[in-house]
Amino acid sequence: xxxxxxxxxxxxxxxxxxxxxxxxxxxxxxxxxxxxxxxxxxxxxxxxxxxxxxxxxxxxxxxxxxxxxxxxxxxxxxxxxxxxxxxxxxxxxxxxxxxxxxxxxxxxxxxxxxxxxxxxxxxxxxxxxxxxxxxxxxxxxxxxxxxxxxxxxxxxxxxxxxxxxxxxxxxxxxxxxxxxxxxxxxxxxxxxxxxxxxxxxxxxxxxxxxxxxxxxxxxxxxxxxxxxxxxxxxxxxxxxxxxxxxxxxxxxxxxxxxxxxx
Length: 262
Description:
By secondary structure, the chain is α+β, with helices and mostly antiparallel strands. The protein has three domains: about 5-55, Arc Repressor Mutant, subunit A (Orthogonal Bundle), CATH 1.10.10; about 60-100, no CATH class; about 120-260, MucB/RseB, C-terminal domain (Phosphorylase Kinase, domain 1). About 50% of the residues lie in helices and about 20% in strands. α1 (about 5-15) packs parallel to α3 (about 35-55) and α4 (about 60-75) crosses α5. The longest helix has 27 residues, at about 85-115.
């Protein structure tokens, strides 16, 4: 994949619409091309700003919908607008039509941007059940046993130590299944709240989440759902998903840290 293809496919990559093989080729190119990383970062920032602005607006389409339906009904019944109808009213009608189209576009964009990958929703549900609600599960608490379990899954024990940023310590761990794939579920704590970090070896299949930024040359994706914040990063060796109740910034900070050390 060359730089021109990267520029052309970046919007699909950022929104998670790029099919798996092409996304893997895209990732491979980013690992060796700093100019393309900068371009994807620029487009990701613009996409994030647009998404934030659109989703911050409260869209009330009831009145526009009623007026459009009335006009359609009038046309169906053969009641056409008078030829001498004042120009400003004709203009208003056209403007209303454009407004209705814009509302549909905004609503569609908002609906799409809120649709997370299955693995994200699975991670959010798993965190809610196992960490927030503390439903009984067979956890491992001994660091040596956790390191052994990680090694069995193809995760170097050194990665467990590397991912623990200052202020966090490992509490417990177990295996879980997100979107039909096995992850090592680590629960870490800052002394106040517990955060989930899900790890698995990279199998060549990208998560296809909406890219928020490029962190240390790696795509960082985010999503907010089920009252928790999800962020993920993929390296050449590992996939890491962070789920926290704290804030979207906290999730991104941990994912950025993972991108730097894994």
